[in-house]
Write a sequence for this structure.
């Protein structure tokens, strides 16, 4: 397989959250990024955080299908990590003029902005679900995230029948949707401003 | 029962979106959707919600997958994570605790001094005879030292005399400014700055001077490339700005750094015309405060790209300054590359200043702008 095809296969695998693909990309890139972070006032934990965030950016990019192989995965992951870490340093007011190798990077600002916007949305969702409390949290997670059917849920959560579970789920869902759409509307209004 | 009705509708909507309905039911539902606006609205809204929910689920799954992969790879030793080894760990710990170490050391120092002075003040005084001897010894050591020192100075003086006789101090005058385009010490400036120069030296912001020679000169374009040839010069690792090839838009804000006086001076303005003096297309007109000495300084845009070299100003009008387009630096380098020894030079095409605030940009750029001094 030629290298370009290989990269494409990897990205397709990544978009499917395929374990093997994730592992390969992880293995090939982690050390470089870790070295970058540690040589610039970071710890191993920081390196893990930054690298995983960069992986998520790559994942989103691969999923959206807009990742044309204009550059190698390696270059992309390095560029994103470098940018994310610079941002982190700036936020901590430990301004660092230049880190790593500025020559071999590609522009990733837009992707990172997009990622941060999405991250904020998911964070909001996470908080909203947490805020529902039990049993709503587990119930909704079981149905919408783990894709269990109502019968399984009824058994697992100890409802007498699937109908009861459905009623409970409905109530929880209404609460979540209310939070979700109030944030969603606020979010889009903010963007318009 | 309104609620059970709602539950049923939502259930139907969910099954519809997930494609779990049989064809008849689907047809029925689609008709319902067409006739009932409320249901249609619910479908749209719920689709959006489910999409977001699905993506959220996948995002969470991907995140946990990442964690697992990380742990697995670390356990298998395929990545060196968590456990920092050897140098990296020492470096990391040192970086992290640098300040603590410094504070600890100074505290330790103060404590040591306090204790020793305490010990000295309460310890029994040594008898005078001994003290006398000691001081005499010290005196003798001092004398020896002095003798030795005077010998050394004598030698140094003779050496100095030897040196200073043939080499006369070169009388440099500030000619203009210049800026680095290659980390190994290539600078760009104006040809008129180094015109008729016998010797050239460039001086950085900290006041250190380095000897430089002209390696490229184009009087017509008023462009010169200098090379720092001085053993005291330490090459840069990289250059923060890039040299733009494209043209800049009218009214785009720009700034410049240069040495109209001994101190580096910042000025800002905008691009006021695409052509230079008497419609010269090599250059462009900018509006910026500039004085003699600013010549050869970089003209930068807000992305931190060099768009030109400040070259001349019109004497008859205030604030009319011309800059040579940065593209000519590329051209000049291409010329230069025909000479084998400079083939490896590559201008950085990406500015690492993009997105930074102006003050941060300037902070990074000022080390790369030099005063160009010449003796004629």
């Amino acid at each position: 397989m030629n290298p370009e095809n290989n990269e494409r296969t990897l990205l397709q695998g990544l978009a499917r959250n395929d374990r093997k693909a994730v592992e390969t990309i992880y293995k090939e890139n982690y050390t470089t990024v870790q070295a970058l972070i540690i040589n610039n006032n970071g710890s191993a934990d920081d390196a893990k955080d930054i690298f995983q965030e960069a992986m998520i950016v790559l994942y989103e990019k691969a999923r959206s299908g807009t990742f044309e192989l204009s550059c190698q995965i390696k270059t992309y992951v390095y560029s994103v990590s470098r940018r994310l870490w610079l941002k982190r340093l700036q936020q901590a007011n430990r301004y660092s003029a230049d880190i790593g190798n500025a020559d071999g990077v590609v522009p990733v600002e837009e992707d990172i902005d997009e990622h941060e916007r999405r991250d904020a949305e998911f964070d909001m969702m996470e908080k909203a679900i947490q805020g529902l409390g039990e049993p709503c949290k587990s119930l909704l997670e079981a149905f919408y995230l783990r894709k269990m059917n109502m019968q399984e849920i009824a058994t697992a959560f100890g409802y007498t029948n699937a109908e009861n579970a459905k009623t409970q789920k409905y109530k929880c869902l209404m609460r979540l949707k209310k939070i979700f759409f109030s944030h969603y509307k606020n979010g889009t209004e903010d963007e318009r401003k | 029962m309104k609620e059970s009705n709602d539950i049923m509708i939502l259930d139907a909507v969910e099954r519809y979106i997930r494609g779990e309905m049989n064809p008849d039911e689907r047809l029925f539902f689609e008709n319902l959707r067409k006739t009932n606006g409320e249901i249609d609205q619910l479908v749209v809204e719920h689709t959006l919600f489910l999409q977001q929910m699905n993506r959220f689920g996948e995002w969470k799954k991907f995140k946990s997958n990442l964690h697992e992969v990380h742990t697995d790879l670390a356990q298998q030793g395929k990545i060196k994570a968590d456990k920092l080894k050897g140098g990296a760990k020492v470096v990391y710990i040192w970086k992290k605790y640098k300040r603590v170490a410094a504070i600890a050391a100074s505290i330790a120092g103060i404590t040591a001094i306090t204790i020793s002075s305490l010990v000295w003040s309460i310890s029994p005084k040594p008898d005078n005879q001994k003290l006398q001897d000691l001081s005499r010894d010290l005196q003798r050591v001092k004398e020896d030292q002095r003798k030795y020192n005077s010998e050394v100075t004598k030698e140094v003086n003779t050496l100095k005399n030897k040196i200073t006789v043939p080499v006369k101090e070169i009388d440099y005058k500030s000619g203009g400014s210049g800026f680095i385009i290659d980390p190994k010490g290539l600078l760009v400036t104006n040809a008129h700055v180094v015109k008729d120069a016998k010797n050239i030296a460039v001086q950085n912001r900290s006041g250190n001077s380095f000897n430089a020679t002209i390696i490229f000169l184009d009087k017509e374009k008023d462009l010169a490339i200098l090379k720092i040839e001085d053993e005291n010069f330490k090459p840069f690792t990289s250059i923060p700005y890039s040299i733009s090839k494209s043209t800049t838009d009218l009214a785009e804000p720009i700034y410049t750094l240069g040495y109209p006086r001994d101190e580096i001076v910042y000025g800002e303005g905008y691009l006021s015309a695409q052509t230079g003096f008497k419609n010269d297309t090599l250059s462009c007109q900018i509006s910026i405060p500039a004085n003699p000495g600013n010549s050869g300084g970089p003209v930068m845009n807000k992305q931190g790209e060099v768009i030109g070299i400040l070259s001349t100003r019109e004497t008859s009008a205030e604030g009319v300054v011309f800059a040579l387009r940065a593209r000519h630096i590329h051209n000049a380098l291409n010329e230069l590359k025909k000479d084998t020894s400079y083939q490896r030079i590559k201008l950085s095409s990406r500015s690492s200043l993009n997105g930074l605030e102006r003050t941060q940009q300037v902070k990074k750029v000022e080390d790369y702008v030099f005063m160009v001094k010449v003796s004629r």
